[in-house]
Known about the structure:
The chain is mostly beta strands. It has one domain (5-184). Helix content is 0%, strand content 35%. It has no helices and ten strands. It has strands at 5-12, 26-30, 48-53, 93-99, 104-111, 133-138, 147-153, 158-164, 168-170, 177-184. The strands form two sheets. A six-stranded mixed β-sheet has the order 2-3-4-5-1-10, with no helix packed on it. A four-stranded antiparallel β-sheet has the order 6-7-8-9, with no helix packed on it. Strand 8 (158-164) and strand 9 (168-170) form a beta hairpin. It is globular, with a radius of gyration of 16 Å. The termini are close together.
Amino acid sequence: MRTGSFLTILLISIHPLLALGPGNDLLYAQTSHGANGGDGEPPATTPAVGAKRVSGDIEIDGRLTDPAWQGVPAATGFVQREPVEGEPAEHDTEARVVFDDDALYVGARMYDPDPSTIADQLVRRDQWGQYDYFEFAVDPNLDRRTGYLFRVSAAGVQRDEFLFDDNEQDDAWDAVWESAVARDSL
């Protein structure tokens, strides 16, 4: 039985990614399965994640109740970073991706059987702390060497980074994006 969860919705404007032109109703991304040795090639077992084109306004409220999310397949099978990177996640996570002419939207639901253990320390933007979070990165240049990382904590704290030279990061880069977090119980 799934009980207690927190849910995150992120909004990021990524115009280069959407420059694929009209008529593209589905984009694909890949979920990460840990470090790949820096060779620029993803692991052979990396699953695809589809992004569906939508129209109309999407409410960024920390819930996946907006009609835009209906019928969008969920990405599952995520892995953990700690304590053992690359191992299956302890709890289920579902992520959905949609886009329109202006932005990319990522919605995720993270399940936890004991909501009292969700770490939600409040810190300043871009700071590390003791908190659970959801993050994703995009590679709009499709070069597997540069990209942008977006993270939101269970307390709603945003962190973003510019990724470059295959494994370097610049957390002084600050994008303009929206996020919302909500907790609920199923």
